[in-house]
Design goal:
By secondary structure, this protein is of the alpha+beta class. It has a domain of 89 residues: Aldehyde Oxidoreductase, domain 4. It is 35% helix and 9% strand. It contains 3 helices and 2 strands. Strands 1-2 form a two-stranded parallel sheet. Helix 1 links the parallel strand 1 and strand 2. Helix 1 crosses helix 2. It is globular and about 55 Å long. The protein starts with a strand and ends with a helix.
Amino acid sequence: MKLLKHWVVEDCGTIINPQLVDEQIRGGVVQGLGAALFEKCIYDERGQLTNANMADYLVPMSGEMPDIEVGHVVSPTQETELGAKGAGEAGTAGAAAAVANAINDALRPFGATITEIPLTPQVILTALGRI
């Protein structure tokens, strides 16, 4: 499986530094895609985490990430002096959900549905009844 492109639109109110905001949103998307596809805690039979270091815990690298297109809806908030809101958080939750929905859409003709993340090859093959 390869992600080709990801689109995200976020409302962070008044945009003060557009380049910084876009990169913060992209960072949130990468975090969400990591949760959807890579990041899994593995425990042994005693409940001890077995992949507690960066050598064993998979996180997305730049080679696995798609192009990320960022768009904005600007509705300034009255709660801050400049009308700015937080940026980046919506990309995190939305990215994982978008990938899960896309995979479930692809699996629908095979009668399979997945309701967990990360969507590892083992999870997908199990849903398809192949393992």
